[in-house]
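note to self: dont lose this again. the chain is below, predicted strucutre after it. 152 aa total, dont forget to put it in the shared folder this time
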Amino acid sequence: MKQIDKGNTERVAEFIQKAVGGDLFEVDTVKPYSESYMACIEEAKAELRAKARPELKTYPDDFDSYDTIFIGYPNWWGTMPMCMFTLLEHYDLTGKTIIPFCTNEGSGMGGSERDLKSLCKGATLKAGLSVHGAESAQSESKVAIWAKNSIQ
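---
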């Protein structure tokens, strides 16, 4: 099993913060996902099939005060992890600008932008950025350009 110090999505989020500023918030579930990749993706598949809403340890402070929100996630089984549904359903996102990005190993944004449209009613959804996970460490300039263009 390969242990990593920093996940691909976290790395991309940090590149965005460095390029345009803002606060970071890591979505963390009460029941942790397995550290084994194969077990983790099986857990994710089961949650997706069950349309689960995993309980979160905490929610961002003052989420309502943000006008523009970058939402990042790994693409698991063609969309966001179900914990992201838990997070987004917790808030009224009317009037907010949502800018999605995901890391993946070849499936791009999948159906996540469609899911975001249904979850973020009343929000403006900007075009997302797909970052190949294996290339995330080398993606800083691409991510920075996209992030800066997304907030204009």
